[in-house]
């Protein structure tokens, strides 16, 4: 139990994420997120709250996973591949030597002053429900209709998902220490394959293979280094 930390206060969480630095940890989150960023005119689902519990990882090296998968799919060596991040709506807080943290800050007019936790989701724990102030708990058909009103998904097959979640949406989060070995990363990237994500940087210049612009927020699933929503 000494390696497990549970946090329910958002100010304490922000401080903990800064102190955590780039250390990789398993996390379990309980969240309540207002479903936003949908066209509001004529949309019957505005005001819906998403209640979910899921686990994932913070501070995992995304670049290595993307480069390896892209290389495998295109018959290349991982050392020949790099991914250049597109334009993003938020920025990573950094260590004094410039390394990105999983704590992020909004970088647009609508997100400035807001803090976010970026993590790599592994699985949902229990049922994810959507509750509307007048419609009540949405059924499967309503959820499918609501999700169809989101922007179209266009993740590349070689990119896992990263979620950038507003700190205000987190009701509680538990951190557990892990020992990240090469074998551990290989197993996890297999699970992350069903998600979408993006990148950071590389240690030395390599052949650029792709660059993308991404779009803004809320509770966000997206191309990492940087973007998206769910």
Protein described:
The chain has four helices and 13 strands. The chain has 230 residues and is of the alpha+beta class. It has one domain. Strand 6 and strand 7 (115-124) form a beta hairpin. The longest helix is centred in the N-terminal third of the chain and has 13 residues, at 62-74. It is globular.
Number of domains: 1
How confident overall, as mean pLDDT? 76
Structural class: alpha+beta
Share of residues in helices: 10-25%
Please outline the major beta sheet: 11 strands, antiparallel
Task: Record the SSE blueprint.
Layout (H helix, E strand, L loop, with lengths): L3 E4 L2 H11 L4 E10 L14 E10 L3 H13 L7 E3 L5 E5 L5 E7 L8 E10 L4 E4 L3 E2 L2 H8 L14 E5 L3 E8 L4 H11 L15 E4 L8 E3 L8
Parallel strand pairs: 4-12
Antiparallel strand pairs: 1-11, 2-3, 2-11, 3-7, 3-8, 5-6, 6-7, 7-10, 8-9, 10-13
Keywords:
230 residues; alpha+beta; two-stranded parallel sheet; 13 strands; 33% strand; globular; disordered C terminus
């Amino acid at each position: 139990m000494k390696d497990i930390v549970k946090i329910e206060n958002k100010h304490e969480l922000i401080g903990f994420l800064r102190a955590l630095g780039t250390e990789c940890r398993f996390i379990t989150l309980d969240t309540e997120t207002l479903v936003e960023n949908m066209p509001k005119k004529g949309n019957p689902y505005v005001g819906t709250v998403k209640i979910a519990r899921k686990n994932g990882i913070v501070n995992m090296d995304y670049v290595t996973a993307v480069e390896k998968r892209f290389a495998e799919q295109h018959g290349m060596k991982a050392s020949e591949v790099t991914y250049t991040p597109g334009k993003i709506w938020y920025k990573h807080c950094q260590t004094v030597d410039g390394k990105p943290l999983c704590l992020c800050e909004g970088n647009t007019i609508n997100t400035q002053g807001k803090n976010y936790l970026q993590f790599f989701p592994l699985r949902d724990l229990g049922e994810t429900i959507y509750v509307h102030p007048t419609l009540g708990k949405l059924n499967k058909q309503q959820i499918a209709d609501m999700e169809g009103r989101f922007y179209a998904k266009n993740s590349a097959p070689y990119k896992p998902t990263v979620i950038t979640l507003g700190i205000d949406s987190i009701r509680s989060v538990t951190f557990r220490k892990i020992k990240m070995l090469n074998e551990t990363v290989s197993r996890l990237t297999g699970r992350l394959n069903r998600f979408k994500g993006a990148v950071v940087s590389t240690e030395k210049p390599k052949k650029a293979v792709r660059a993308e612009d991404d779009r803004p927020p809320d509770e966000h699933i997206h191309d990492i280094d940087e973007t998206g929503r769910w």
